[in-house]
Amino acid sequence: MEALRRMPEVQALLSMPALAGVEQRPAELERLLQRVLVDPELQRAVGERRVTGAMLEAALREGPLERSRAGAAAAATAAAMEAQLDGEADGEAVGRLEGLGFTHAQALEAYLACGKDEAVAANLLFEGGS
């Protein structure tokens, strides 16, 4: 997780007014960063620097209703992540990350979160960021 926090994109996210003080709440920060890794809409909002307080509250909520929706959303999210792979080279990179002992989901999530940079994704995985 620490490697993820050092990424320029995450530093930009943490500098947004909606996130003031979240670094002092490590559990919330970790949940938020994990959500950013798997939520394409939140990723877009971060990239466009349009994260709002309401988006953060929604990302951090983990009530029973959200958990029941999570199962259905997980399949859609996995398919959306797979669709972001651009051919054989990306598939092989994810395969090499799996070969390091990580699940396909972990490898894919880290690879995409790190801008398809295999070395950065491996570092993220080894530091426990996925």
Automatic annotation (TrEMBL):
Function: Multiubiquitin chain receptor involved in modulation of proteasomal degradation. Involved in nucleotide excision repair.
CDD domains: UBA2_Rad23_like
Transmembrane intervals: none
GO cellular component: cytoplasm; nucleus
GO MF entry, a single one: damaged DNA binding
Domain UBA residue range list: 88-128
Top-level division of the source organism's lineage: Eukaryota
Alphabetic keyword roster: Cytoplasm, DNA damage, DNA repair, Nucleus
InterPro entries assigned: Rad23, UBA, UBA-like_sf
Similarity remark: Belongs to the RAD23 family.
Native organism: Emiliania huxleyi (strain CCMP1516)
Location in the cell: Nucleus; Cytoplasm
Gene3D superfamilies to which the protein is assigned, alphabetical: DNA helicase RuvA subunit, C-terminal domain (1.10.8.10)
One Pfam family named in its UniProt record: UBA
Protein name as catalogued: UV excision repair protein RAD23
GO biological process, one term: proteasome-mediated ubiquitin-dependent protein catabolic process
Entry-linked SMART domains: UBA
